[in-house]
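Predicting holo structure, uracil bound.
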Amino acid sequence: MSYVPSQLIQKKKRGLALTTDEIRWLVNAYTAGVVPDYQMSAWAMAVWFKGMNDDEIAVFTDAMLKSGSRFDFSKLGGPRIDKHSTGGIGDKTSIIVGPILAAAKVYAPMIAGRGLGHTGGTLDKLEAIPGFRVALARAEFEKHVAENYFSIMSQTEDICPADKKLYALRDVTSTVDSLPLICGSIMSKKLAEDLTGLVLDVKFGSGALMKSVNDAMKLAQLLKTTGEKNGLRVIALITNMNEPLGRFSGNAVEVHECYEIMQGKTLLENGHDFYASTRELSLELAACGLLLAGRADDIAGARAHAHELFNSGAALREFEKLLAYQGPSDISKLPHAKFSRVLKAARSGTVQPMDSEVIGMSCVELGVGRKVVGDKIDPAAGIEMFVRIGDNVKAGQPLCRYFSSVESKLDSTEKMLAAAIAVGDGAPERLPLVAKVLS
Ligand code: URA
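Done. Tokens:
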């Protein structure tokens, strides 16, 4: 059966639900190149305005999943858990969560992403380690998961090709921030991993796709329901992205932060441990994963287990195994940026809520991410935060350091960062790192 694309666009434009056959046909015809980009963009925009009902979302997700092939890890005979974040700045927790799960002998097959818009990507971060390989062949990934529990690979041509194509289109047609489209995109890839459980880190705040806790809750509920309809157990944490996570945002610098944290180090300065938010969120996400894997009876037990695996150095050893297997890679040779500058407070006062999206865009400007598909990234570029929201600062006090391998990029970034990290009067409200949990 074939359909007329313009009629499906019109149906959605009028707010009507598409049938199962119509959705499956559209996704397949788009993947095969029968429906062109311009018609798919119009349909995506109609979805942005009119949404989809729960049945449409379930069918859309399944059609995206079935556009490619799925892993089969059932023969491993144990729980398979992944953690997925909706995207943030300084958001590096997969690098710590995976090793904790592996240390508990929980399989963690992770298909990770690259930087997207103003948000960073785990693959770009890991590739900053000289020698680290993410473009694994399917068989190599399967072998590593089976032998060492944890592996990270990039999406291949045969994993959700419909999403690969549609995501690139959404990125340039302002249709990324649509709940049904995000849901289909994320959950099709997670279902392809053949997991038994998924921990979702749904971000809210100035640096997140969803700016308010309520919108993040709606997205989390939708992702959870879609996962559960497909037999996946899901716990979703709604977490704060009003300021970058941890000390560093970038590629090499984020790996360095994770490595130091796994070695038990802290970064105490100005009354803070600047590593605390990265460490705490990673441990909480890992604890949720251990709970889903049945490694504890309740969240308190799962937290204790995650802390023990982390404090004993077991997680660090798993990370070192990953470095050897997906290399050989040399973490002692992380690149350093040649050029750096410090942004200083223009006045005395209190650090106000930050515009984290602009901080993320500053990272992209420095070379951490790509402005257009195919841009080469600068593994050494990034930002180091010296303050948190609500800190009292004096005029001239350093707020952050920003660095790049290309000196001129510091000039173009300076104004952006000065606008994003404002110092003013009054005490801003500090929201918790984990605002809500859907379990
Ligand atoms: N991450 C994805 O993989 N897809 C989206 O649509 C948004 C975030």
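The mean pLDDT is 95.
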